[in-house]
Amino acid sequence: MKRVALLGMPNTGKSTLFNRMTGGSARVGNWPGITVELLSGKILLGADMVEVIDLPGIYDLHGFSDDEQVVRHFLHDNVPNLALVILNATQIERQISLLLQLKQLNINIVVLLNMTDEAKKYGISIDSRKMTELLSMPIYQISGKYGTGYHEALQAITKALRYPTPGMAEQVRSQLEQDEHIETEMARVLKHAVQIPARLPENLTEKLDSVMLHPWLGLPIFFGIMYLLFQGIFLMGQPLQAGVAELLSWLRETALEPALSSLPAMLQGLLLDGIYNGVATVAAFVPIIVLFFLLMAIVEDSGYLSRAAFLMDALMARMGLDGRGFVMLLMGFGCNVPALMGTRVMRSRAMRLLTMLVIPFSLCSARLQVFVFITAALFTAQAAPLVLFSLYLLSFASAILTALLFKGQFKNSEPFVLELPPYRFPTARQMMLRGWQEVTHFLRRASQFIIAGVVLVWLLTNLPASAAPASSETFAGIIGTWLHPLFAPVGINEQLTIALLFGFVAKEIVIGSLAVIYGLSGTALGGALAQQLDWVQAYSFMLFTLLYTPCLSAIATLKSESKHTGYTLLAIVWSLALAWLVSFVFYQGARALGY
Amino acid sequence: MLWNNALTIEIFRPMSALTLATLRTGEIATIVSIHAEEALHQRLLALGFRSGKRIELIRKASFSGPLQVRIGTTDILLRRNEAAKIKVCKT
Asked: Can you identify the CATH homologous superfamily of domain B15-90?
């Protein structure tokens, strides 16, 4: 199958075009010579199926950022039949250098000049016929967003693919090092074909930025926008999540339970409470992930994410992170899983790994449920809000501490030099595709792992068959007893230890598991907890719940995003160690003070 | 002695002391030279930073945050310590 590689600088609308070309059919896949996954899709061009690959946006073919190396290695090991180079017409005067670098590779190239409509507003006029002549490459003007010029471009691509692929010389790098030649040629082409006014007319972006990036108003507006996003995900996400849960339990009661009723009780339990609950756990994340990325697509495609980086960078730089990491950290307070996936906007791997190490400390909505239940049972109405607030503070503190401790380990070598794109309206199609892509990615990568984990915990809490579920005779109970010397110094009893094992799967089921363990539910369970535990023990349990591994889905996501088992283990071990240490210091400290 | 030397240079070559980081908001300057390590240098070149180019400081983020500069039609964010590696002269 012939291969078409999409190449261009960041912010050229390359991904929008890729999505238009491939529709929803894009898949992530591995390629020889590189370690990161790339999006690709198969489309019918003329009479042939062609594979289109979206390469990361780069500034420079011989640069040294992670992305630039990926593109270089890709081109070296998978010479495409055609390179489709997308240039942002508003920045033509510096984008052309990349095109000339690619031209030197001696591969088939079709050039698409994108955003020509926007360039016109800046008074930039481009004579594409003249440019075609000077560069001896086919050049087409398109608008990736509105689709104009798209069909002509597709025809040109189909035509260009009929030509044989010239072989690329082995010594890619040495060929690329002809900087001087490129600079003079660049100047020649620009001089003859492009006219740019000396001073750009003031436009909407500038007016918006004078408010959005205002020295005093910028940060309050940023937090306002974050709050709205957050609320948006909740207000829309919770009913959706509840709906999915209801649908699944309806399906269970009306179809699965009657169908499986003839099976032995043990097998029924495994199928329904093990595997089916695992599926339900995965399904519960689907609406949240779709919503999250619908909204993130707005923030990102509108150009606001770079502005958020500008506003928050002063604080984040000290922690070895950047402003975009802060956005993801905040979003993690809704749900860690999409926030972890969202770190893909960071192009430096080291910084991405550090951000992903920090995000799981964000107090997500599932943990909040546990805390609300326990504070209501054990603290007075006056003390409860303070207790919750202290947990939020601690959540931030642990994130900051983790970043400070590990920033040497994950040292970011990429300079913080970002382009600030003008504001753009995101298109609905782009948003939908993003949500769809992220959900399929999550389902493919994480679902098996999550289901296996849920089944494992079910087996632990239900075997051997003679023991009552979640009792101290089950394997979970035995592990709980076995772990008791470890948990006694932090004031967590054996029943709560079993609940923590459940909490490893998902924090949503911690209270449910306590109900099973104690054989009580609702206010009766609250009463039993209040009788058995004092506030020091309860707070210690909440501290541990806050800090240890958020959930199986988060682990699965950490693993699928980092593609590194050692890193995933580090994230688990570090959070467990920190959880134990903090609970230990608190519990022993409070006891020593006589509480 | 070292302090003395530095001071002498300041007095005799006032132009060289001016960097992108020392510009004030709204000021326009010309890039004289870039003194950055390989990776940063490459990135800056690719974004259009070249000696002789006009550069405008659009705004500075609060709390010593990054700078927003404009070269040609492109707006770029960079941190102050990176901007300090770019020597400029006022025009």
From this structure: Ferrous iron transport protein A (FeoA) (2.30.30.90)
